[in-house]
Amino acid sequence: MGTLYVVATPIGNLEDITLRALRVLRSVALIAAEDTRATKKLLAKYDIETPLTSYFEHNKLTKLDYILGVVQEKDVAIVSEAGTPGISDPGFELIRAAIERDIRVVPVPGPSAVIAALSVSGLPTDQFVYVGFLPRRRGERRRALQLLALEPRTIVAYEAPHRLLESMQDIEEVLGNRRIAVARELTKMHEEILRAPVARAISHFAANPPRGEFTLLIEGAEKQPRVLEADEIEERLRQLVARGVSSKEAISVVAHEAAVPRREVYRLWLDIKNTISC
Question: Looking at domain 114-218, does it have CATH number 3.30.950.10?
Answer without folding.
Answer: yes
